[in-house]
Amino acid sequence: MPTKKAIPSVYQLKITLLGIDPQIWRRIQVPSTVSLSSLHDLLQAVMGWTNSHLQFEKDGKYWGVPGDDGFDDDIEVINESRVPVEQVLKAEGDSMVYVYDFGDDWRHDVVLEKIVASDTPTKPVCLAGERRCPPEDVGGPHGYQEFLEVVFQPGHEEFEEYREWAGNPVHAEEFDVGTVNKTLSRMRWPVRQRRR
After folding, report:
1. CB 85, CB 191: distance < 8 Å
2. Which of 39, 87, 95, 132 could crosslink 111 through cysteines, CB 3.0-4.6 Å?
3. What span, in angstroms and rounded, lies between the C-alpha atoms of 101 and 112?
4. Alpha-carbon distance 24 to 133, whole Å?
5. Are residues 158 and 178 in the same domain?
């Protein structure tokens, strides 16, 4: 008689973009078995990024796309598509760092807030968040701070240039959880792994 397949726990994660004040953050729920590769796709969608270089870091270990990691050969990068999040974050309060865009070096603190038992399979969902993510290629946290100082001062000499570059109007404080969840509902879960 076939045994019933175990349903994975649900991980509630809080993702906070480091180096930005006031904070830009998201709270999501994902199956504990989701691969780090799929978690990357999920973080891209909930934060609003456009999918440049990435990696996960914890305790001196690195997960990403081997050969596409920006490191010298002396640092081992574990293939993210083969590792479920539950192998890295094992208990409530555990955390890791998600690095996005090696040029801008956006660092995200990913904290396992809660492990929830589930009776039915779950799809990823965004529960809450605050503030829109910075524009791509703005220069990391320092560049984003400079951007904010210019883009909301019409008298600044670089105001028009920044507005044109970033798109007009700029809504740094906006975050719409409904829009994010519509995006997530259109994605296939588990996300089909990208060819490496």
Report:
1. no
2. 95
3. 23
4. 7
5. no
